[in-house]
Amino acid sequence: MSTPSLRYYWTRQEEAKLVELWKAGTTNPEVLAKQLNRKPAAIQKKLGRLGVVVVQQKNQPTTTNEITTSEKLPTHEAALKLLAGALEVLQKPGLDKLELQRSRILVDALQRYDSVLEKFERWDQIENRILEMDKKIAELQKIQKIQS
Fold it and tell me: What's the CATH code, domain 12-64?
């Protein structure tokens, strides 16, 4: 196979092939680089941009797209504080490209999170009110049976 050429853009077919190989279990960026005629660093960057996190363990890169869940939901206030912090970072001059991307992703994620949290809280309130109504209906039915 030829040495990787200096190509900056990925075609959709190349991205699809990368994802296909990764899903099939080829997670080593060096192996993927050889198969796609790219440099390992380019493979790692593209995997990151596609949402696959490349983790370095014992000098052997591996990939994962696992997301751990948290039992505690951050409040609106906590989300807004994080959003304010990210916006402050974005205002600083001289940020490198990676810092800008991370901050922008954080801002977008926090805005979406706050919207989803608001909907969740509304549904949670509705569910609680329905449960209260069910209890009251059951109590009224008991009273009605006793009176009959």
Answer: 1.10.10
Nearest in space to 61 (alpha carbons), one of 81, 75, 41: 41
Of 67, 108, 69, 70, the C-alpha closest to 86 is 108
Using one digit for the tens of pLDDT, what is the confidence trace for 9-22?
888 888 888 888 88
**Is-contact 63 54, C-beta < 8 A?**
yes
Write out the DSSP string of 8-43: ----HHHHHHHHHHHHTT---HHHHHHHHTS-HHHH
Give the tokens for residue 109.
């994620």
DSSP of 47-95: HHHTTPEEEEETTEEEEE------SSPPPHHHHHHHHHHHHHHHHSTT-
Q: Which residue has the higher pLDDT, 3 or 139?
A: 139
Q: Each residue of 90-135: pLDDT tens digit?
A: 888 887 888 888 888 888 888 888 788 888 888 889 999 999 999 9
Instruction: Tally the C-alpha atoms within 13 A of residue 114's C-alpha that lie toward its C-beta.
Output: 14
